[in-house]
Amino acid sequence: MSGMPRPGWHVATVAATRRETPNATRIELDVDGWPGNEAGQHLDVRLTAPDGYTATRSYSIASSGEGSRVVLAVDKLPDGEVSPYLVDELRAGDRLEVHGPLGAFFIWRPAAVTDDARPVQLIAGGSGVVPLFAMAHAHAAAADPTPFRLLYSVRTPDDVYFASEWAALAAASAPLRLDLVYTRRTPDGWSAPPGRITRDALEAAAVPAAERPRVFVCGSTGFVERVADWLVELGHEPRDIRTERYGGT
Amino acid sequence: MTSHLDGNALAGPLADFFSFDITTATGRCKACGTVAELARAMVYVSGAGTVVRCATCDHVLAVLVDTGERAWIDLAGVSAIEVRR
Asked: InterPro entries, from UniProt (chain B) (predicted)?
C-alpha cells in the first residue's frame, strides 16, 4: 500500500466524450485534485437526483499515471441506473462526483518497481478490457521488459474497445501480443467460427503455467469464474491469478 | 440481471473506515479458516446493504450498510486481519 495515491471525493468535469463501440462511450474527465492513479484502479461515480436520491457505481479507469485527466470507457447495461446516463446523455462541460482512485489489488506496476519480471497474461471479457488496457498502455509507456499478452473475448469486431490503439501497443518497444476471440460474429476470413472461449482456446492462447505468469482476469462474473477455474485446472497457482468481476451475466 | 461482485468493489465503501486500501489485506474466515485477500471475497449488493461472503465456503464475512448519513460495518465473520506494510 506504500506509495498508493490516497482516495477522496472529487468534482470531475467532462472534457470530451466519444462513441467507443455501438454500446459504449469513452469519457475523458478533468478531475480537480486528482492525485494520479495506478494502472488497473477504478473510481466510483455518484449521481444525485434533484430529490436527493443517489446512485453510485464503480468504473475501471483506462488511463494511469500522474495528472488530472482520467479516461473511462463505459458500457451501457440494459436497465442500468447509471450507465445509460453516462453513455447516452453526458456531454462536455457536465460535472460528476467521483471517489477515487480506488483498489490496490487489481493493479499492475512496472518490473522496475515490483522487481517481478515474470510474464503477464491479461484476459478480458467485453468491457472488462478497460483496466487491462490501462495496464498494457502503462507497460508500453514504461518500455517494461516483462512479456505481456492479452486474450480478449468480444462479441463482434464492432465491439472491440480501443480498436485504434491496439496496433500501436503491439508495435511498441515493449510489445503486447493480442489474441481475440469473437463470440457472435467474426471478421471476414477469420480462422475460427464465432463462439465462447473454451478451455482449449485458453490453453492455446495464454502464457503456459510452467512460466508462472501473473494473470489478470476481468469481465462479467460468469466469464471470470469460468476462466479462473480453467486456469487452476491448467496448473496456474491460484495466488498468481487476480480477478475483477463487474457483475452482469 | 446483475450477479455478485468481488472484494475489489469494497475499496470505495471501506475508505470511510480505514485510512489505507484494505482490499489487499488478508482476512481469516471464522467458519472455514481460509486466509485470503479481501479483494478475493464474493460481494452481493442490494438496496438493503452489501454482504461479503467467503469465496471458499460462502460464510458471511461482513455486512455493510450505508444510509447516506451513516455507514456501518459488521465484521463478525472475520476472525483475524493481516495488513502488510
From this structure: DUF6510
pLDDT at residue A17 is higher than 50:
yes
A111-245: what fold? Rossmann fold (3.40.50)
Among residues A31, A53, A51, the alpha carbon closest in space to that of A41 is found at A31
Helix (H, G, I), strand (E, B) or coil at A60: strand
Write the ipTM.
Answer: 0.94
Q: Kind and range of the H or E element at A222? A: helix A221-233
Look up the CATH number of domain A8-102. 2.40.30.10
Closest C-alpha among A166, A141, A132, A155 to residue A40: A132
Per this entry, what is the length of chain A? 249
Contacts across the A-B interface (CB distance below 8 Å): 73
Quick one: closest CA in A to B44, which residue?
A: A247
Domain count, chain B: 1
Q: Which domain holds residue B40?
A: 5-82
Burial class (CB in 10 A: 0-12, 13-18, 19+), A40: buried
B76 CA to chain A: closest CA distance, Å? Answer: 23
Closest B-chain CA to A54? B68
Is the fold of A8-102 the same as that of A111-245?
no
pLDDT in tens, A141-191: 999 999 999 999 999 999 999 999 999 999 988 889 999 999 999 999 999
